[in-house]
Amino acid sequence: MKTIIIHAKNGRLSDEELEMAAKIIKSGGLVAFPTETVYGLGADALNPEASRKIYEAKGRPSDNPLIVHIADPNHIEYISKDITDKAYKLAEVFWPGPLTMILAKKDIVPLSTTGGLDTVAIRLPADRTARDIIRCSGGFIAAPSANISGKPSPTRAEHVIDDLDGKVDMIIDGGKTTLGLESTIIDLTPDKPVILRPGCITKTMLENVIGKVEYDEAVLGKHPDDSIRPKAPGMKYRHYAPEGNLTLYEGDMRRVVEEINKKAEEFIRAGKRVGVIATEETKDLYKYGEVKSVGKREDEDSIAAGLYAVLRDFDEMHAEYIFSESFFGGNLGQAIMNRLLKAAGYRVVRVD
Ligand code: AMP
Ligand code: MG
User: Fold this and answer.
1) In the predicted model, what is the mean pLDDT of the chain?
2) Bridge-partner residues for 292, per DSSP?
3) Mind listing the pLDDT tens digit for each residue in 265-312?
4) How far is the CA of 342 from the centre of ligand 1 (A)?
5) Is the per-residue pLDDT at 8 higher than 80?
6) Sign of torsion, CA 342 346 347 349?
7) Ligand 1 mean position to 235 CA, how many Å?
8) Nearest ligand to the C-alpha of residue 115?
9) Closest C-alpha residue for ligand 1 atom 2
10) How many domains, the chain?
11) Is the pLDDT of residue 23 over 50?
């Protein structure tokens, strides 16, 4: 298949480009487009054949459910039922934005979109172009991250092109995504809502609006135990792991730098390709291996935004060993470390 690539000028599409994207989605095709979190691979969420194509293009297991993206908050009533007051409150405060809510689904949503579940995940993105596409394409777009299953989510159009060129009808290049981490997912079907995936909308932000919220066991940074039945089918799948062996170092920053330098030197001497994940503040302190800054520690948004691109870069250079600083704490620590810990297979070295 020949993939049409469109470069959005200043992040915006012309009316003709928008119409072209909408036509593809309405006729059951696939369009990758940027949102404020990561790039999404969009198809008509109410067309079972179209959502099946998403699974095929990504190589995604068919019981890993998709998030339905809408452009008008009232549209939750068209696809979900038993909508609680908490859901309405969260929608009012956090939409448009990086929050996905799980609610009971109506029959109109095909099981092939929800991975066979009787619930549906819904999000209203903040990105204006994403909302334009959704609105013009019928209002309900299933859009998981636009990567091959098992790779880091794409935060730039080049990542999408690397993974999906030739497999989808259109890729819209809107530059770097602003947040860089996938949405926070909250399940509102139990009495006490549960966070299934941490993101830029934090537990505290949610609790300020609807009271007590819990984390699902699987997001607490523990190694997933086979005996825990995952709430979301997606949680049981192998998450992204870099080609190289990734280890996180945690503790006093000076000691972390010292230890990473020591290890990197040791592995370089042994003839290995070594990568170091540093920050703007520390990058000049590392002396061995390929050193990449993920962002500024002073500005945690920049770390979230830069993480996936750095992980992809190290795969591209076939790094055999990767040493990384840790990012516990702050508002985004939970979301950043959730991704990094999984990528590292929970290998963390404490150095103090
Ligand atoms: P992605 O869009 O690739 O970031 O993945 C979407 C994720 O949302 C899935 O892997 C699930 O973990 C979660 N999800 C989507 N729909 C549901 C649902 N109905 N119930 C629970 N989790 C869901
Ligand atoms: Mg994904």
Assistant:
1) 94
2) 277
3) 999 999 999 999 999 999 999 999 999 999 999 999 999 999 999 999
4) 17
5) yes
6) positive
7) 8
8) 1
9) 144
10) 2
11) yes
Closest atom of ligand 1 to CA, residue 182: 4
- List, for residues 314-333, the tens digit of each pLDDT value: 999 999 999 999 999 999 99
Q: Is residue 92 part of a domain?
A: yes
Looking at residue 241, what is its pLDDT? 84
- Asked whether residue 228 carries a pLDDT value surpassing 50, the answer given is no
Partnered with residue 290 across adjacent β-strands are: 275
Whether 191 and 335 map to the same domain: the answer is no
Is the pLDDT at 203 greater than 50? The verdict is yes
Q: Is residue 224 predicted with pLDDT exceeding 80?
A: no
Distance from Cα 254 to the centre of ligand 2, integer Å:
35
Closest CA to 35 of 84, 98, 92: 98
Kindly state whether residue 240 falls inside one of the protein's structural domains: no
Structural domain of residue 31, as residue ranges?
A: 4-220
**Ligand with minimal distance to 143 CA:** 1
Task: Name the residue at shortest CA distance from atom 15 of ligand 1.
Answer: 65
**Tokens 């709430």 map to which residue?**
231
Ligand 1 centroid – CA 67 distance (Å): 6
Ligand 1: residues whose CB is within 6 Å? Answer: 64-65, 67, 102, 114, 117, 119-121, 144-145, 182, 185, 196, 232, 234-235
C-alpha span between 306 and 30 (Å, rounded): 26
Strand partners of residue 43: 142
Domain containing 298 — which CATH number?
3.40.50.11030
CATH of the domain at 141: 3.90.870.10
Burial call 240-253: b when 16+ CB within 10 Å, e when fewer: bbbebbbbbbbeeb
Residues 140 and 251 both lie in one domain: no
Which residue lies with its CA nearest to atom 11 of ligand 1? 234
Last-in-domain residue among 220, 235, 270: 220
Q: Are residues 205 and 254 in the same domain?
A: no
In a domain, 290, yes or no: yes
Between the CA of 150 and the centroid of ligand 1 the distance, in Å, is 14
